[in-house]
Design goal:
Pnp Oxidase, Chain A; Thrombin, subunit H; six-stranded antiparallel beta barrel
Length: 238
């Protein structure tokens, strides 16, 4: 797995970021093992060890005993995540923030690279309902889309093309998602030696956007992303 996936934030920078997020009431996303994503607002940093967060009325939940959680945070254009323990009295969450803080890809939405050994693929469903017999490897994923690669130049899918994919992530039940191509290109060989050319398999990579149907679907994809993120972090972080 590429170490860049888990690029650690220096301790002094971590303290600065968490202080600013608390001061500005930044958005905090929590994903527990058996609870859907909770959207909170940072309220107060306590002794640089705990972050107190406010719970919206429609998001309230109670955790009398600390439970493991994956946390996503944003500050300006940067995205971060960490693991920790959290408790809740129904009105506020106390989050233990003594663990390491890591960078996510610097994108508009939270995005995470997928490890080589993690089961993540997609199949394209044609308009006639038949599945194209090619596995598209998922390279990275967010709640709003993913990047896929496959060892062929056909089918050539142009920008703005819309279609349905069947998404397989880990051992979860597959899900059908409507997508639109945002970018697509051929992967060029880095070296053009005779041996490389002889073994080179033409391939392409594309980025697709998940087409949001409604707020329920949007929430479902956010839950899926953070659940996958939690699984990858716990399984592959050394």
């Amino acid at each position: 797995m590429k170490m860049e996936i888990f690029k650690k934030v220096h301790l002094s920078e971590k303290k600065r970021i968490l202080r600013l997020i608390a001061e500005e009431g930044g958005l905090v996303l929590l994903k527990f093992e058996k609870i859907d994503v909770k959207k909170l607002r940072a309220k107060e940093l306590i002794d640089e060890k705990y972050l107190e967060c406010e719970i919206r009325e429609d998001e309230r939940f109670v955790l009398p005993q600390a439970e493991s959680v994956v946390v996503n945070l944003s500050y300006e254009e940067d995205r971060f995540f960490m693991s920790g323990m959290a408790t809740s009295d129904g009105n506020r969450v106390i989050l233990d923030i003594q663990s390491e803080l890591y960078y996510l890809q610097r994108r508009k939405s939270m995005r995470m690279e997928v490890p080589e050994k993690y089961k993540a693929k997609a199949n394209i469903v044609q308009s006639n309902g038949k599945i194209i017999p090619v596995d598209f490897k998922i390279l990275d994923i967010s709640s709003g889309g993913c990047k896929m690669s496959f060892p062929a130049l056909e089918p050539s899918l142009k920008v703005n093309t819309k279609f349905k994919i069947i998404l397989y992530l880990g051992n979860r039940t597959s899900i059908d998602v409507d997508v639109q191509v945002r970018h697509s290109r051929e992967i060029k060989p880095k070296e053009m030696s005779e041996n490389y050319i002889a073994s080179y398999t033409p391939s392409q990579v594309m980025g697709v956007q998940f087409l949001v149907k409604d707020s329920v679907f949007e929430a479902k994809m956010l839950n899926l992303f953070m659940d996958v993120q939690r699984e990858i972090f716990l399984k592959f972080k050394k």
